[in-house]
Write a structure and sequence with these properties.
Radius of gyration: 24 Å
Enzyme class: oxidoreductase
CATH superfamily of the largest domain: Dihydrodipicolinate Reductase, domain 2
CATH class of the largest domain: Alpha Beta
Number of helices: 16
Helix content: 25-40%
Oligomer: single chain
Catalytic activity: D-glucose 6-phosphate + NADP(+) = 6-phospho-D-glucono-1,5-lactone + NADPH + H(+)
Active site: 259
Largest sheet: 9 strands, mixed
Strand order of the largest sheet: 16-15-14-13-7-12-11-8-17
Protein name: Glucose-6-phosphate 1-dehydrogenase
Structural class: alpha/beta
CATH architecture of the largest domain: 2-Layer Sandwich
Strand content: 15-25%
Domain Glucose-6-phosphate dehydrogenase C-terminal: 208-502
Shape: globular
């Protein structure tokens, strides 16, 4: 038995609905909006890394579509520059870069205009008409339906055609339904992949493994043992070039409606019957529907919204939001904190605290599970509650804080220690970017890591009353200096319940 110590153990889940990942399949992948920042920073580097690992067949096509008048050669030059900058392994493997660029093509086309000349794209797709075909719509959401209409009008939808929609799906419940209805006229639900890159992050997926592959944790994963849950997504950057978009969205639409609610649902869900798209999303949906609705009183007491002003980060002065935006005034939040409640037996009485902000003191995305303290004291010291911290970024991993006897102190004094696991060190490999998993999952037709229509609508049902309450000033806007941890009122959300935010040292 000793000879097997330290070897990786393969766990075979019940994945009857998940396609085979062992053989790379040829495909045609059309990126609509292919000159944008997302394509250059994320999509092309993600495809390149999978190609380098021989997970993409050499006769596949990656076809960029945008309105810019470019040749394929010029587009390949831009793609090569993007790979050198954003794909970590590209500078070390010029041969792989050259071979990958042979897969890349470009078509100048307004894909939301059915009357435009689609013949160059039709010709590229006609070579292997029967193989998997994906349309990744990386444009403004207002163009989703028009693009789906145009694809259908040109008879480019086959039985193995898929469409990928970037978030956000709408700006409220009505617009989300309109997008889902419009795209759904041409694509059935099994063909629609609503992407949330948080679900591609390995640490987010590891929430499932941590809970359901380790019964020792799942048996204490409830209100009897857990005091509260914190989910934080903090950034040091400001709005940058996204200012015009961000000012119409704000942190609630941009981060909570999709990313943080998806993480919350994975933390809080019941065990699925199998690791299939249907079972997993059924359980997430139950949690989204179990969130306690936010009325005016709850919005006033259990939410905080704020906007960053000028400050200092890492010793450098940075401007406030209005200066970054180039505007005199704005009522858009760049920070929020929310106290949420999941109305299930497992989580009765356990608060879930959500927090996200720009221009914060540190960049960190993590989930903190704080366990209940010992009900009576037997030590002189009062031990800190044990915390399980799941680090989503940076330094993906987890740590469990425990109290132990201090070996250097006289008497029985306690000292906190952490059991820490860095996933990169533990698995000895490069941690893939979230889009790598997601893009290949689309090609395989695997919807486990994607969001179903009813999930989108359930999240908007919970978010929309908060948006409306803020519009009516049920919770006034506050400010916080850049480089801080947000307004003091966010601390009070937890302090009123006897808790504190877990902060980076």
């Amino acid at each position: 038995m000793a000879e097997n110590a330290g070897k990786a153990r393969t766990v075979h889940a019940a994945t009857d609905s998940r396609p085979d990942e062992s053989q790379p399949a040829s495909f045609d992948f059309v990126i609509v909006g292919a000159t944008g920042d997302l394509t250059m920073r994320k999509l092309l580097p993600a495809f390149y890394e999978r190609f380098r690992l021989k997970q993409i067949a050499a006769d596949s096509k990656i076809i960029g579509v945008a309105r810019s008048d470019l040749s394929t050669e010029t587009y390949r030059q831009r793609a090569e520059a993007a790979l050198k900058e954003f794909a970590t392994s590209a500078p070390q493997d010029e041969k792989a870069v050259r071979e990958f660029l042979e897969l890349v093509h470009y078509v100048s086309l307004d894909a939301s205009n059915t009357a435009a000349d689609w013949s160059p794209l039709e010709t590229l797709l006609a070579t292997y008409a029967a193989r998997v075909r994906v349309f990744y719509v990386a444009t403004a959401p207002k163009l989703y339906v028009a693009t789906a209409d145009a694809i259908a009008d040109h008879s480019l939808i086959t039985d193995v055609t898929r469409i990928v929609l970037e978030k956000p799906i709408g700006t409220d419940l009505a617009s989300a339904k309109a997008i889902n209805d419009g795209v759904g006229r041409h694509f059935n639900e099994e063909q629609i992949f609503r992407i949330d890159h948080y679900l591609g992050k390995q640490t987010v997926q590891n929430i499932l493994a941590l809970r359901f592959a380790n019964p020792i944790l799942e048996r204490v994963w409830n209100a009897d043992s857990i005091a509260h849950v914190q989910i934080t997504a903090a950034e040091t950057v400001g709005v940058g070039k996204r200012g015009p978009y961000y000012d119409t969205a704000g942190a609630l639409r941009d981060m909570v409606q999709n990313h943080l609610l998806q993480v919350l649902s994975l933390v809080a869900m019941e065990p699925p019957t199998a690791l299939s798209a249907m079972d997993l999303r059924d359980e997430k949906l139950k949690i989204l529907r179990a969130l306690k609705p936010m009325d005016t009183e709850a919005i006033a007491c259990d939410t905080v919204r704020a906007q960053y002003t000028a400050g200092e980060i890492d010793g450098k002065a940075v401007d406030g939001y209005l200066t970054d935006l180039g505007a005199d005034m704005s009522n858009t939040e760049t920070f929020l904190a929310i106290r949420a409640e999941v109305r299930t037996t497992r989580w009765a009485g356990v608060p879930f605290y959500l927090r996200t902000g720009k221009r914060m003191a540190h960049k960190e995305t993590e989930v903190v599970i704080e366990f209940r303290p010992q009900p009576w004291a037997i030590f002189v010291d009062s031990p800190e509650p044990s915390r399980l911290v799941l680090r989503i970024q940076p330094d993906e991993g987890m740590s469990l804080s425990l109290s132990g006897k201090d070996p250097l102190a006289e008497g029985f004094r306690l000292r906190e220690a952490s059991l820490d696991v860095s996933y990169i060190k533990a698995f000895g490999t490069r941690y893939p970017d979230s889009y790598e998993d997601l893009l290949m999952a689309v090609v395989r037709g695997d919807q486990v890591l994607f969001i179903r229509r009813d999930e989108v609508q359930a999240s908007w049902c919970w978010i929309e009353p908060i948006l409306n309450g803020w519009a009516e000033n049920a919770r006034p806007m506050e400010t916080y200096p850049a480089g801080s941890r947000g307004p003091a009122s966010s601390d009070n959300l937890l302090r009123d319940d006897g808790f504190v935010w877990k902060e980076k040292a």
